[in-house]
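job 3f2a | input accepted
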Amino acid sequence: MKAAVFSDTHSNTALMLEAVRRCRPDAIIHLGDYERDTEALRREFPEIPLFNVCGNCDMFPSAPLVDTVQLGPVKALICHGHTLGADSYDMSPLVYAAQEAGAKIAMYGHTHRAVYEEVGGVQLLNPGTAGKGRKLTWALVTVFDNGGIICEIKDL
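job 3f2a | predicted structure (156 res):
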């Protein structure tokens, strides 16, 4: 299973849409800022399951702050990260939330910095920013039937 993961699009949807067209994922995940950008994904790719959370710049959000999604055999925790310490460099609140949820991977945004690392037995993924910054990135997550995960940070 392949999931395309985006964060911090800030109304710059064209490159995100092009990335989805190119990779044709089995699922799309948007980690906030701006929640309304998910509407472009829904219109363009109604057949692809879409999971999203709101971010700190989403004024009247309809999506949750934190959610869990099933990616094949793997449970993933998704959030924007601003309520779980992503901007403090102390990832323990995020790691703890993922552990409590039984998630093998936690995906977050907010910092506009792409990161993929393992902390406390949890894989942490920040796809970076797809909308605002010097370097625009997203992530392609491949989940295998045996629960293995590969995350690739890709340029837009």
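job 3f2a | The longest strand covers residues 137-143.
job 3f2a | closed
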